[in-house]
Amino acid sequence: MQKNVPEIKWLIVLLEKEVKKYFKSEKEEIEQSEVTGGEFMNMMFDLFDLIFPVMFLLIFGMILFTFISGIRTWNKNNNSPRLTVEARVASKRQNTTHHNEPVGGDTSGTHGYHTTTSTSYYVTFEVESGDRMEFSVYGKEYGMLAEGDEGKLTFQGSRYLGFERAIEK
Predict the structure, then answer these.
(1) What is the pLDDT of residues 61-118, one digit of tens each?
(2) Across-strand partners of 137?
(3) What is the DSSP string of 35-89?
């Protein structure tokens, strides 16, 4: 038994070295994965730091573009001459949209929905040259016009100003 004691000690030392080596490599892998995870998080934050300003600028740019386009159309209409021409009502159309909004912000609809409806009215006029122009009109004006009506159309740019029906004798 005495003879085997040094061999056992040697085996224990060798086993300890292997265990330390194993746990050291495991520890390094864990540290590396933590670094990798940290790098991943840094990449995600860097990506967010890039995407957020880009999306903000894109949305702001779209709002600004819409606003400037509206001002440009308004200015173009104001600088256009008021014209009165002989015209005929060629066609009429309406666009109705329905919006359902959940009551109380409950998107499941448990508390019901609030419904709103919006209708836009359009009339197409045909002038003597055969050209057609479509204008957005108010509901009252839309109701007073009938397809085939003839008279004098007054407009300014793309803005409808009125239609005076010719009285037949």
Answers:
(1) 999 999 999 999 999 999 999 999 999 999 999 999 998 888 877 777 777 888 899 9
(2) 121
(3) HHHHHHHHHHHHHHHHHHHHHHHHHHHHHHHHHHHHHHHHHHHHHSPEEEEEEEE
